[in-house]
Amino acid sequence: MIRIGTSGWVYPPWRGTFYPKGVTQKRELAYLAERLNSVEINGTFYGRQRPASFRSWAAQTPDDFVFATKAPRFITHMKRLRDAETPVANFFASGVLMLQNKIGPILWQLPATFRFDADVLAEFLGLLPQSTAAAAKLSARHDHRIEDDEGLRIDADRPLRHALEPRHVSFQDEKCLRLLRDHNVALVVADTAKKWPYFEELTADFAYARLHGDVELYTSGYTDEALDRWAAKVREWHRRGDVHVYFDNDAKVRAPVDAIGLSRRLGIG
């Protein structure tokens, strides 16, 4: 499958532009899901969500919709992947598994000051669950911050994928690529208007791209020519497996427009 979406969906500037007048905030996710087949949940990066929220998001979207979920910055930016077992258990216990058949890749975005450390990365990748059953088992080791075990329930055992988005050039290292391949973790292809290093090595059985802005980070839209180029890349990656692409250039209301534009070029929707 090819999944195209945006990074998040709750943006006030989209109201009255992408979201027509009359579409209430409670209807925004459903409106977006009628036009795109995936979205990144980015609120999980900033704080713990509740199982009821994940259940509600899943219920608002079509059967074939998929959610990617951005992992907490507490793990990636504060703990910096060290001593991560309990925080990762808490993350999965918070309700991610409530997405059931709509669960997509977990995105682990690193800070720009995080340099590649083979030992740290190897230990962290070894911790990551590769299935929902393994995630539920890990979640059982949560601490007191999780009030109950509601978020540990799964309806079926499904594969669970992970993607890593580093922002330091030191990750352009064959040891890093080998670790990612060994654990089937995708190295994110991130277009950051040359703000951070660009990686395009495919290290998993799926590809994951984040488009943060063509010329200006987080704000500039993608021209027709740029979308044509990205469509060609997606077609090439798709020969090897599934592809997930998310637009994060939301500041000027370009993300949903560009996501729809790329989807149409790929014959989606």
TrEMBL record:
SUPFAM superfamilies: TM1631-like (SSF117396). InterPro entries: DUF72, UPF0759_sf. Gene3D superfamilies: Protein of unknown function UPF0759. It holds the Pfam family DUF72. PANTHER family: DUF72 DOMAIN-CONTAINING PROTEIN, UNCHARACTERIZED PROTEIN YECE. This is Uncharacterized protein YecE (DUF72 family).
